[in-house]
């Protein structure tokens, strides 16, 4: 598992906590675990897809995915 993807689990749970505090929600530990599982499973699949697309390691696949997402966000905002 690439380091950038492994670190994303903690960041994702922090985001869940922020959402709950902001919106006044309360999710059980089981709900948080399930949401995290779904997000991380999809993220892993996306990284594997990029790694295969560019024929690179999973780490570089994660970087390629991040780069593509930032570039797309810039494109839709008319920056590039």
Could you provide a short overview of the structure?
Helix content is 82%, strand content 0%. It has helices at 3-23, 29-54, 58-76.
Give Rg in angstroms: 15 Å
Judged by helices, strands and strand pairing, the structural class is mainly alpha
User: What portion of residues is helical?
Assistant: over 70%
Succession of helices and strands = HHH
Shape, per Cα inertia axes? flat
State the end-to-end CA separation.
Answer: 32 Å
For the secondary structure, the number of strands is 0
In total, how many domains does the architecture comprise? 1
Low-confidence stretches: none
Question: Strand percentage, roughly?
Answer: under 5%
Tally of DSSP helical segments: 3
The biggest sheet, with number of strands, parallel, antiparallel or mixed sense and barrel status, is: none
Overall average residue pLDDT: 96
Would you give an account of this structure?
This protein is mostly helical and 80 residues long. It has one domain. It is built from three helices and no strands. Helix 1 packs antiparallel against helix 2 and helix 2 (29-54) packs across helix 3. The longest helix is centred in the middle third of the chain and has 26 residues, at 29-54. It starts with a helix and ends with a helix. 9% of the residues are buried. The mean pLDDT is 96.
């Amino acid at each position: 598992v690439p380091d950038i993807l492994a670190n994303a689990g903690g960041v994702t749970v922090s985001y869940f906590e922020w959402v709950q505090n902001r919106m006044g929600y309360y999710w059980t530990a089981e709900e948080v675990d399930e949401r995290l599982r779904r997000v991380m499973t999809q993220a892993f699949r996306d990284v594997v897809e990029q790694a295969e697309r560019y024929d690179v390691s999973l780490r570089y696949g994660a970087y390629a995915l991040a780069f593509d997402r930032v570039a797309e966000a810039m494109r839709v905002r008319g920056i590039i």
